[in-house]
Amino acid sequence: MIGGIGASNRYIIPAANISYVTPVNTDNTVFSSGRVSPVECQTCKNRKYQDGSDEMVSFKTPGKISPGESCAKVMSHEQEHVANAIAEGNEKNKELVSATVSLKTAICPECGRAYIAGGTTNTVMKTYGDDPYSKNLKSFEAEAMKGNNVDLVA
What is the pTM of this model? Predict the structure, then answer.
């Protein structure tokens, strides 16, 4: 049984005979003289994000994102890529087959905080019409169908 959390930072865990436990803070804070103050290491402070695609989206120039905001901001950025793919899929002779977003997590080597290190959007687009891909697909399908409808009885 763990004692109640209140004004004291002492926890009693009778099973292990430990009378004092320093709390672990998931938000990377340090207790000092009864107050909680946030701490940001130099690695997290200097981390920058930049988009490497050829689309017009955010983060074309390097920008800072705090570890606490990295998930929301990186996902929002990747959704810009999805929105661009949807717009392209609505064009004539094109169809968006799928769009998937993957986020990459990492742990800061200096302070141990988890953060989103980046993201990737994969899209699959199907095109129709007179472009070279459609012509090759039609000739491939025609070649594949030859001989499939042979009447062996006659």
Answer: 0.59
